[in-house]
Amino acid sequence: MPAFKIFDNDIDFDTLQEYLGCEAIAVDTETMGLIPRRDRLCLIQICNEQDSVSLVRIERGINLAPNLKILFEAPDVTKVFHFARFDVAMLEAHLSIATHPIFCTKIASKLARTYTDKHGLKELVKELEKVELDKTSQSSDWGNVHVLSEAQLKYAANDVRYLLPVQRKLIDMLIRENRYDLAKACFAHIPTLIYLDLMGYADVFAH
């Protein structure tokens, strides 16, 4: 398995330029919990088609990452997430990054893989990439960013390593089933959902 680069609080200029030259990058986050306004952002993972993985440790109190902001707001680089609604909200809440454009493999899976109700990353990667992800470190303490274990770092890297090939397969399925335009409309709606989430609204579309 190729090595990954580790950064503190932001990527460097050369890495920024490398990723800006990509059509798409995979992105994930690790946090102290699931409530963006309460729980801390601890780690950001990035991977491109060349399997160049960067792990960015975010220390407590950091609220700006200029190079990450440039990258995640770059209009010509698609940011691929699994459950983008959460990760993009964390980036907005903690680093004031308005991520776009967005592709969410969880939404794409729900629209394309209607033959199953299993749309978690582990199940998706197992079916489409024939790889069994180890999720042992998923629920662990990510807050002490400078002493993250080798198992945690490997887990974090693997969570982005397969997203781009999964994205390509899902796009093929969506096009085949004539649902790709619907998927793109859903992705475009994610920032509105995140705005409502961060404002504290529940389901405004409910009766």
Give your account of this protein's structure.
- The protein has a six-stranded mixed beta sheet, sandwiched between helices.
- The protein has a single domain, classed as Ribonuclease H-like superfamily/Ribonuclease H (Nucleotidyltransferase, domain 5), CATH 3.30.420.10.
- Helix 3 packs across helix 8 (180-199) and helix 4 packs parallel to helix 7.
- The protein is 43% helix and 15% strand.
- The protein is globular.
- Strand 3 (41-47) and strand 4 form a beta hairpin.
- The protein is built from eight helices and six strands, in the order E-H-E-E-E-H-E-H-E-H-H-H-H-H.
Question: In summary, what is this structure?
Answer:
By secondary structure, this protein is of the alpha/beta class.
List the SSEs and their pairings.
Layout: E1 4-8, H1 13-20, E2 24-31, E3 41-47, E4 53-57, H2 66-72, E5 78-81, H3 84-95, E6 102-104, H4 105-112, H5 121-129, H6 150-161, H7 163-176, H8 180-199
Parallel strand pairs: 1-4, 2-5, 5-6
Antiparallel strand pairs: 2-3, 3-4
Helix pairs in contact: 1-2, 3-8, 4-7, 5-7
